[in-house]
Amino acid sequence: MVWLVVGLGNPGDEYSSTRHNIGHMVVDELANRYRVKWSAHKSRTEVAALKIGLGVDAESVILGKSKSYMNETGGPVKALAAFYKIEPEYIIAIHDELDIPFGAIRTKIAGGDNGHNGLKSLTSSFGTAEYFRVRMGIGRPIGPQDPGDFVLKNFASAEKKALEEFIGRGADAVESLISLGLERTQQDFNI
Fold first, then answer.
1. In the predicted model, what is the mean pLDDT of residues 53-71?
2. Is residue 20 annotated as part of the catalytic site, yes or no?
3. Burial track 144-156 (b if 16+ CB lie within 10 A, e otherwise)
4. Residue 37 near residue 93, CB atoms below 8 Å
5. Catalytic-labelled residue, pool 20, 24, 41, 116
6. Percent of the chain with pLDDT over 70
7. Which of 104, 137, 162, 179 fits a 20 to 30 Å CA distance from 187?
8. How many structural domains are present in the chain?
9. SS3 of 96, please?
10. Full residue range of the structural domain in which residue 12 is found
11. What pLDDT was estimated at residue 1?
């Protein structure tokens, strides 16, 4: 079986370091960890292929990043999944989550989109919410700042100091989901 691990985010340098792009950061970490290169795919995505695990138990994984904006993610990701014949139950979406404190990770399968445009687009395109999520906590803005503006800002100085470790744990959670399953991953990461 092949897994599709999609990092949600927006294309372009202006968004690359924003909170909304933490999904891209995690799949970039996985690509670096496994020393694989990104290449353009006809589905309007960037892809990289790798194996997680050892020997005959190794799982084939396609990493994906949409070249479209967050609210249009579903179409390219569905086209990529169709190309590799991957069903939604073998898709992991990594995304920013306002309702979880910065640095916390939650994993789950299915559920609502909680106002997240990337999840809304994925669910609409696939016609189901039955895919895994690695929810990367970014916290909520303090004060009257609009959440839509907050997610498109760079991380604060204090957050930047912890960001590398946080992204690494996000990559660890993806590996755990694929190798050990949801229940074990939730025990280890949903703390």
1. 92
2. yes
3. eeeeeebbbeebe
4. no
5. 20
6. 100
7. 162
8. 1
9. strand
10. 2-189
11. 84
| Per-residue tokens: 109 | 């399968």
Would you state the structure tokens that stand for residue 158, as one six-digit string?
């204090």
Sole residue written with tokens 């190798």? 179
Residue matched to tokens 């700042």: 145
Mean pLDDT of 28-53: 96
- Say which CATH number the domain at 179 has: 3.40.50.1470
Two structure tokens written together for 140: 């909520």
Residue reference for tokens 């909170």: 19
Walk across the sheet containing 39-41 and list its strands: 39-41, 45-52, 59-66, 2-7, 91-97, 132-137, 105-109
Q: Which residues lie across from 47 on neighbouring strands?
A: 39, 64
Q: What is the pLDDT of residues 96-145, one digit of tens each?
A: 999 999 999 999 999 999 889 999 999 999 999 999 999 999 998 888 88
Element (DSSP H or E) covering residue 171: helix 157-180
Dump pLDDT digits (tens) for 20-29: 999 999 999 9
Q: What is the pLDDT of residue 49?
A: 97
Rg (CA), the chain: 15
